[in-house]
């Protein structure tokens, strides 16, 4: 299927690894020009070079730095001649016991996983509406749908973003001008972050990493971890010309792990 977005410009945050990288790759294969951001400049430059090989006709601009800072956001937003697609993405805060978290811990989590996406959305959606096309996808977490006890910082910050999106996505000035804002909620995908979490869990339980992974997969009806490429493909569809009637939604990709009806 031709997604109808060739020649568009996208900003993809946390694009050098994992689900952000897979999303950027799916857009590149559709002929979308990219501004990619991540903190590690070397990894980002390598990722940008690889993305250019997927479609030699596109432009790929690397903007390294911490997207939670205003100056990096301004640089990233200014790198493209216009912004048609925004992929908000950030690594989740560390797990722990809420009794140990300080106000500063909460401020960092909320800044990364709620305020920064909101600031980026605010900076681009009105211009998108004026041009009659815009797609915003916020990569959040399945924990928004089914909170994970040890991930309270993430549960709280991402739920705040979810509530905010539910309100603004339905504004007539946005939805009525072909600007959609949706949240994509990944479950367990085979990324470096998941492998790190499995190693940490294995160390605490005394099991091998392999056994820990098998135990986790056994709880997923699909019987496996997700492939980042299938996540990227779905993200690209949400950004497509065909997805203009879908907005304000929380789309769960978790292999059936969530047991609820809604």
From TrEMBL:
Organism domain of life: Bacteria
InterPro entries: NAD(P)-bd_dom_sf (IPR036291), SDR (IPR050259), SDR_fam (IPR002347)
Gene3D superfamilies: NAD(P)-binding Rossmann-like Domain (3.40.50.720)
Family: Belongs to the short-chain dehydrogenases/reductases (SDR) family.
UniProt name for this protein: 3-oxoacyl-ACP reductase
Organism: Halotalea alkalilenta
Lineage: Bacteria, Pseudomonadati, Pseudomonadota, Gammaproteobacteria, Oceanospirillales
